[in-house]
Specification:
Radius of gyration: 21 Å
Structural class: alpha/beta
Largest sheet: 5 strands, parallel
Distance between the termini: 16 Å
CATH class of the largest domain: Alpha Beta
CATH architecture of the largest domain: 3-Layer(aba) Sandwich
Shape: globular
Length: about 325
Amino acid sequence: MDNQVKEVHGRVEKEQPLIEATIDELKKRLVGQDEMINSVLIGLFTHGHILIEGVPGLAKTLTIKTLSDILDLNYKRIQFTPDLLPSDIIGTLIYHQKDGSFVPRMGPIFANLILADEINRAPAKVQSALLEAMQEKQVTIGDTTYPLEAPFLVMATQNPIEQEGTYNLPEAQVDRFMMKIKIDYPAKEEERIILDRMIIDEEIPVKKVLDKKKLLKICSLIDEIYISDRIKNYIVEIINATRNPLEYNLKIDTLLDYGASPRASINLARAARGCAMLAGRGYVTADDVKNVSFSVLRHRLLLSYEAEAEEITSEDIITQIFNSIVVP
């Protein structure tokens, strides 16, 4: 480890108590769901967005609301419905009759943390209203473009069970999400703890751990976390295997219509850096890449009809890819 990496590693270690305190405060209200907690923090630190799939009642809303309390950030919840309009998200121009002028009325997208609840309940035109905000961190109302204040995180949820009255997310929008997390029911022991905590109609208090200035300092430090050439090559090999599986003796070419896009390799590297930050390290390891790979890749692999007929999932394919590529 050279001096520059050691210096970054030391700075990351100094931030570790604040990150651990943030996780501890989150766990005062949340039971289990460690993957969701870690993924949301990685998304926040790396300026990524998170898509969460799970049935109702698994603390998705509670997670983002608690995070806003701990970090003292603005939070808005948008309930997606079939009659939602793009202006309901980004805002619109209001006419003032007295002076004949148009004044912008900002929509709920102008917040630090956005919960897009049941995003697949709104049609594509409404879903696309999020695209500019998610990718460019800005919103255009009329002829004026307004920047969104950093940090900015969209956490979208979708219900995997009830498909009546839902719309598939456009591929371009799905690719904008850094990670897709699948969450399941809690274990019996966890549910008993949830029952003990939530049976009383009182909100569990949490402390404000990080302010916006300290959070942005952590976000800027992410870009300095070291990724060696061998780890970069490892990431490229993983992504290339989704496009050219026969080069790696993988018999999955008939199971995939399309492999992962270049955005996948970028997000895999960014998410791995976020994983290293949570671990208190100033450098990325192969395990960091593996730990975030399912979340980064599962929504970027377009499965063929044959894969669906054989009930083969994107997770199955990702597992095969990792088993075939030599770990550096």
